[in-house]
Amino acid sequence: MSTIVELLDVVMDFETSSLGRKQKVRAVDRVSLRINKGEIYGLVGESGSGKSTLGRVSLRLYKPVKGKVIFENKDITYLPERVIRPLRREMQLIPQDPYGAINPAQTIGEALIEPLQVHFNTSKEEAFNRACRALEEVGLIPPEDFMDRRPMELSGGQLQRAVIARAMILRPKYIVADEPTSNLDASIRTSVIKLLLDFREKYDQSILFITHDIALLSLIANRIGVMYLAQLVEEGSVEQVIKEPLHPYTKALLSAIPLISSQIGLEKVYLKGEIGDPANPPRGCRLHPRCPLVLEECKSREPPLIEVGNGRSVKCWLYYK
Ligand SMILES: Nc1ncnc2c1ncn2[C@@H]1O[C@H](COP(=O)(O)OP(=O)(O)OP(=O)(O)O)[C@@H](O)[C@H]1O
Ligand SMILES: [Mg+2]
Q1: Are 246 and 308 in contact (CB under 8 A)?
Q2: 51 lines ligand 1 (CB under 6 A)
Q3: How far is CA 164 from the centre of its chain?
Q4: Among 89, 241, 290, 307, which one has the highest count of C-beta atoms within 10 angstroms of its own C-beta?
Q5: In the beta sheet, which residues pair with residue 3?
Q6: Where are the alpha helices (H) located in the chain, listed in sequence order?
Q7: Is 37 a residue whose pLDDT tops 90?
Q8: Ligand 1 binding pocket includes 48 (Cβ within 6 Å)
Q9: Quick check: CB of 47 below 6 Å from ligand 1?
């Protein structure tokens, strides 16, 4: 199976200031992962675990402080923007908040025409026609009704469709869908997910799908990566991770979903307290203060990501032999 995107030992830091004091947040800490061509890789984890940051690093919208980003066998980690630009049309982000995604002063038509002119130098007339077709493709019909409207004049669901149309108009090979339905009403979420799946099928795209919702991933993903406090703590095929979760954190996520936990006979796993502070993560295993299965060594030594066979790995001392 060939790879579209590979991240190797990626580290990403942000400087923040709290009460006038500067501090460093390591949002992504030594994460490696591979996204195969044509697959949906589901990335799940609590708020603040570093999912969006990792997604943006994979698109080289952020330059990591360490590690490598490989796109179609090409190391793009340190390429200057001018060299990356032609690759940008092949990799697109569908962000969480559609209202922040399109410039509020632009019409939907302008937002769709612009990338065509920037990347393909398409004539105005041709770009207009392609924008109309792109709107039709996402179900905004008749497209002429939407071309002149501004983002605030669309419902959340319509706008997310327009954002998807803008990302897809360039026919990208790799998409990062960052919680694309979390701001939408439950009633329209399914149709937006279906739209993304239809595009993937039609244009043979690869998707990094970011979500809090592991139950959704059980339905749409090929492989799953679980993040906790900036680190990848478990990875495997969807069947493996959902039917036989290994990491106590993954077990806790799944045991909170009655339909899945009853199917796989998983007992409720309770985590103590809240997710830790990414600026000051716990020593040893980052889950240890919350973990019901904590061992003595978890408190002082960080477990490696242990390969347990069949492409599965887990970052937990319970599996260290
Ligand atoms: N631009 C930024 N500047 C400063 N800190 C940031 C920035 N982006 C992310 N962070 C910090 O990095 C950490 C990881 O954030 P990130 O947004 O990647 O998490 P997430 O898993 O996507 O969370 P959510 O599920 O809430 O979207 C957090 O502590 C966050 O505050
Ligand atoms: Mg996020």
Answers
A1: yes
A2: yes
A3: 15
A4: 241
A5: 36
A6: 51-58, 81-88, 98-101, 108-120, 124-137, 144-147, 156-168, 186-203, 214-220, 238-243, 248-255, 258-264
A7: yes
A8: yes
A9: yes
95: CA distance to ligand 2 center in Å? Answer: 9
Beta-bridge mates of residue 235 = 225, 313
Q: Rounded to two decimals, what is the model's pTM?
A: 0.96
Cβ neighbours, 10 Å, residue 208? 27
pLDDT of residue 112: 97
**What is the average pLDDT score of the chain?**
95
176 forms beta bridges with 93, 208
Checking if the pLDDT of 1 tops 90, the result is no
Q: How far apart are the C-alpha atoms of 168 and 161, rounded to whole Å?
A: 10
pLDDT band for 104, please (50, 70, 90 cuts): very high
16 touches ligand 1 (CB under 6 Å): yes
Residue 67, classed as helix, strand or coil, is: strand
Residue to substitute in 15, 29, 49 for testing ligand 1 pocket (most ligand atoms within 8 angstroms of CB): 49
Q: For residue 177, what pLDDT band results from cuts at 50, 70 and 90?
A: very high
Measure the CA–CA gap between 94 and 208, rounded to whole angstroms.
10
Distance from residue 26's CA to the centre of ligand 2 (Å): 15
Q: Compute, in angstroms, the gap from residue 105 CA to the centroid of ligand 1.
A: 27
Domains and CATH numbers, the chain: 3-90+172-319 (3.40.50.300)
pLDDT at position 276: 85
Ligand 2 centroid, distance to 179 Cα (angstroms): 7
Both tokens of 15, joined, read 């400087």
Average pLDDT over residues 271-282: 90
Distance 47 CA to ligand 2 centre (A): 7
The whole-number pLDDT of residue 93 equals 96
- Strand 206-211 with 40-45, pairing: parallel
